[in-house]
Amino acid sequence: xxxxxxxxLSKKYGEYVAVNDLSLTVERGVCVGYxxxxxxxxxxxxxVLTNLLRASSGKAYLNGVDVIxxxxxxxxxxxxxxxxxxxxxxxxxxxxLSYVGTIRGMSGEAIADRSHAVLEQVKLLEVADKRTGKFSxxxxxxxxxxxxxxxxxxxxILDEPTSGLDPRGMVEVREIxxxxxxxxxxxxxxxxxxxxxxEVCDKVAIIDRGVLQTYDSVANLSAGHDVxxxxxxxxxxxxxxxxxxxxxxxxxxxxxxxxxxLKVSFTGGPEAQFRVLRGILNTGVKVVSYMPQRAAxxxxxxxxxxxGEA
Amino acid sequence: MAPNSVRQIATVAKYELLKxxxxxxxxxxxxxxxxxxxxxxxxxxxxxxxxPKDPTQFTVNVLSFLGILSILSATFFGADAIVSEYxxxxxxxxxxxxxxxxxxxxxxxxxxxxxSVGAIALYYVIxxxxxxxxxxxxxxxxxxxxxxxxxxxxxxxxxxxxFSAIMRSSVYSLxxxxxxxxxxxxxxxxxxxxxxxxxxFSITFANGISQYIFDNPYPTDKIFTTAAPGxxxxxxxxxxLAQYYPEVRLSLIVMAVYFIVAFVLSIFLAQRREx
Lengths: 310, 275
Hints:
Order of helices and strands of chain B: HHHHHHHHHHHEEH
Oligomer: heterodimer
Order of helices and strands of chain A: EEEHEEHEHHHEHEHEEHEHEEHEH
Number of domains of chain A: 2
Low-confidence stretches of chain A: none
Structural class of chain B: mainly alpha
Number of helices of chain B: 12
Number of helices of chain A: 11
Distance between the termini of chain A: 34 Å
Mean pLDDT of chain A: 90
Shape of chain B: globular
Largest sheet of chain A: 6 strands, mixed
Structural class of chain A: alpha/beta
CATH class of the largest domain in chain A: Alpha Beta
Strand order of the largest sheet of chain B: 1-2
């Protein structure tokens, strides 16, 4: 029994098809990045999975329970952050967590313990007893993540979890997700941030105009696509050094962009990236910086999602 | 594992009440209740007038504000109860939990009903205590009047929830609820007197039983005919006006039907509504 199983799911609004015959299975303990341009159907899929929308046809199962017909049972072991939820301004974070914890059948003691833990995790412990009415968008997003984690779910469904967060908050949320991945939790996470998905997720599903374009591991998707790195050097690269770099295994092209800068493209994943760096250093070039210009996932995404849609 | 729906309903009701207690609307209703009661009690001696000698008439006078209080309660505590979850996006926090929307709806309705009943009860208590202090008696049928007021309150609260389940905007729902009971239906009731049809189907007309129950005997329908000079002062033109009174049993049935239909329909619509 897979934690998340979507079978021929469609969602229509009149003539407009938001999700078209989508089938997707997420294995236990896997983190899936769900990518696509605006209006591709990411949030619609997540809303169907979290009982916020009714599917027009097809089925969706969470831990083997049909979420469309038995949402209460299906959502039992699920934590979700959909869009940036608002909280009742009269309630404090502690009360919000107590509210959902009681709805989920947690004991008072468990709610108190877990509330403390998750509020500390999302760095909201200091405002735990302050009403949420004046919270910033970032604070609300942190609280949303806290309520999703409160009951230690086996499935976590996140709709752009770093949306609204400042750079530090984004890093912290990514670290939380990375920490969760080490456990047995299954995560489906939609995002616009391709590097975020590549950094955090095991697998990637790309959807466009409601249709699933690809679904594979990050490693498989990265393989076969060129990665371009920008190399800055301390001294100008000599012609023999340039030729030596060009001759390295994995390299597909080398271009001098400035006196002290090169653009090197190669095929492969992180291991190839390491081999290329080591090879360049072995040529005697004094490398100051070595920065991948864009993620391999970005290449796959741009190939699958035509221009003008993102 | 998520508890049964009854416990979840109690949880929703508890937190809705907490929201009301910390919000301004409950405070506004309580203050309004006290101020209006005070006006009835303080103004007559302040202007040198006397309270009505008949304790029943005094009670009826004080309770004349009850209809507006019920409308305000339904508006404040029911008219945006559902729509606000969608409009203000709090539904994204509450709905993706293992709880049926029906349980959320019922929990909210119970909380709305409790605070509204509290406001109405407070007003009755003030009225009864005042009459008791001033006249030394409590009019017969006060309990029945309170019971009828609650039936009316539940019916208009259910209709307010129905508007809340249908409308896309809290403001529209609030305005529609208030003006339906404060203006539209009372106009229909008034037109009935002129056009000589009895608006027995109107819930605001039916609510009259909570006031007329104090009359002994219970009033019956009347037609008044008056004569006036005709056009250009030629001849005599007669005009007739009807004074209709709601029948107790029929009015209770009408209010109960409004409650049941609106309640069931609003649950159905709220359950089907998407974020």
